[in-house]
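Thread: "does anyone have the structure for this chain?"

Original post by V.I.:
We have the sequence but no experimental structure in hand. Need at least a predicted one for the grant figures.
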Amino acid sequence: MADTIHCIKKTLRLMPVEAKMLAEKAEAVGMCEADYLRLLISQKPNDYPEIRKLLKNLINEINHIGTNVNQIVHNHNMEFYSKEDKERLFAYLRKLNLVVKEVVAEIGD
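Reply from O.Q.:
Generated one for you, tokens below.
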């Protein structure tokens, strides 16, 4: 089945140390060696499992913060808004900025 998609075969010669490194790196991301090499060739950052996980965590965190912000705005509209709510809103926004900075630091600019 894979040969119908990937129809060109290439022979690759590696030193034993290089072969071991390839096997370890592919196993670390849960891929076979051929898929890992294709990933390295394509260089699509969104394909990397680590980046997908970081982005998923970031989106979840933003959604949680958005829910809290919506509750604060709802309380404000109902005239239940207090100084503590305003401080809590700023704390959530600071947390959001920190999470975004962490992801940018891990992924790179």
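V.I.: this helps a lot. The two ends are 38 Å apart (CA to CA).
O.Q.: and The chain has two domains: 2-43, 47-107.
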